[in-house]
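Human: If only I could read backbone structure tokens as easily as an amino acid sequence. Underneath my words sits a plain record pairing an amino acid chain with its backbone structure tokens. Take your time, and here it is.
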Amino acid sequence: MESKIKIKQGILILFLLLQYVLYSQKSNKLYDSFSISGTVKDSKSDFVITNADLYLLNCNKSVVANSEGNFQFNISKGSFNDKLIISALGYYSDTIEVAALEKMQKEPLLIKLNKEKEAEVSLNEMIIVSAKKKSNNLSATAILKKSKENIQSNYYQKPFNQKFFFRSQTNKDGVFTINEEASINTFSPNGIKVSDDAAANYFGEIVQFRKKSDSVSNENWKGIGYFGVVIFRNIMLSNQNLLYETKNFELKKEGITTYGGKKVYVISFKNLNPTVFSTGFGNPAPQSAIGFIYIETDSFAIVKFEQYVVLKKDRSNDNDDITIESSLKITQTYKNVNGRYFINYCNEKVESNYFSQSSKKQISTVYSNYDLMSEDIITENVSAIKRPIDRLKLDAKFVEDLEYWNNNNFIIENKKI
């Protein structure tokens, strides 16, 4: 009897071992990749370069470094013969062979980029230093007009899938109330087209989800559900912006810099009549809005957009004694894939300060940070998705793959929010 039990136990152990081997083989096949990580810095000053782009030359996979210059990139071994391109605004791009990177995967990389000598444009939040090289005779208004006229030729106009990494963080008085991230596969049936409601032209499903704090936001528009808001405010998708309300803006051509190896106009703007229809913001209404827009000199494609918005004071819904003062900074970048541009990276930072009218004191501060990064783009054999992105979280079911986050790309979290 005892020998039979031992035989059964042996068979069970053998079965479990076989299952483990099969699962390992399946995982290795599914995630046949290696990971690199490191920091991108200025070659002379040794300062970190914020949000540098890293992408593979011969496919559509890419990542973006965080605001502290740090990155992680999971690269398929099928891209062994490919090249990694590193680029940033105002810098010469650099190239590294993927074969060389695989040998260095166990040690952090330090990538140093050289500044483009003829175009020194330095950004410090929303302050700009004029470029050294003078641009041609086109006015800022004329450049924006040409950019608007060339949208269809510059931006992809056919159906496509795009996979994004999205992170949503809210921190109240030093404590996270929301800290969620997801991998989201999207479908755009009409390509990148401007409309009254940008979110209506995007559909998506959550591929993977994980929370990094104990609480999970239940409201559809909170947490990763905010993805739809970020899309709605995209300057290439919504007509509630600078391109379509140009008469409300004071424009100034600051000069020319370089981005992704191409010359780019730098235009600053100030909103003279900030309304919902010129900022993309609803309640509370905007009080002021300034920013920069970066437009290629040859194609007139918008490659980067920054906007800083101060909102009017608002009353709390929960307490009439409390007023809220909020400001937002939005950064958007776009990348060229086979001659057409797609969303590359979007970041939205929100700061809200709560004041008591009776005590005349600040009682609370809430910071929110939203990061949206392109992982991959598919233009062939496109898959239709039916879920509207403004209903991304409603009745959605998440099946977490523990290995997924070790083998797919995301933005490294900043040390400080």
Summary: Residues 2-30 form the longest helix (29 residues).
